Amino acid sequence: MVTLQERAWRLMGNPAATEAAERRIFPRKQAHGHVAVHRLDHSVPARRQPVLSMSLRDISLGGLSALSDTAVNRGERLSVLLPSQGTQHAWGAYGRVLRCDPSGMGYRVAVEFDPMPAAA
């Protein structure tokens, strides 16, 4: 059985020939807008502020990058809701925080989406 990662590597060609710093399987697409984020952990900060709004920077099938006014913890579980735009319906995903780095605009947050189950 071939994994999703192996199929992606085959489509990309020789992964050693790609830039070493770029390890993403799915290509990123620049995106703008606000996403609603529900914090799923039971930590004190998450319970005090369970809902956040983040400004989307980019998105892919594997995750997203956004700016937040509030710091979130690495590993924290999130539910993300992207609003409808034009003919595209709203959709949501679950994920976990990979990084949360301070920036001049608040915090840069990287979220990795949970894998979606394969269709039967």
What's the helix and strand layout?
Elements: H1 4-12, E1 29-30, E2 34-39, H2 44-48, E3 51-59, E4 63-68, E5 77-82, E6 91-103, E7 106-113
Antiparallel strand pairs: 1-3, 2-3, 2-5, 3-4, 4-7, 5-6, 6-7
Descriptive key words:
Thrombin, subunit H, globular, single chain, disordered N terminus, mainly beta, 120 residues
What does this structure look like?
The protein has 120 residues and is mainly beta. Helix content is 12%, strand content 42%. It has a single domain, classed as Beta Barrel (Thrombin, subunit H), CATH 2.40.10. A 6-stranded antiparallel beta barrel has the order 2-3-4-7-6-5. The chain is globular, with a radius of gyration of 16 Å. The N terminus is likely disordered.
CATH H-level homologous superfamily name = predicted glycosyltransferase like domains
Taken as a percent bin, the fraction of beta residues is 35-45%
In total, how many domains does the architecture comprise? 1
CATH architecture: Beta Barrel
Biggest sheet, in brief?
Answer: 6 strands, antiparallel, barrel
CATH topology: Thrombin, subunit H
Please give the alpha-carbon distance between the first and last residues: 15 Å
Output the CATH class name.
Answer: Mainly Beta
Low-confidence stretches: 1-21
Quick summary of this structure?
With 120 residues, this protein is mainly β.
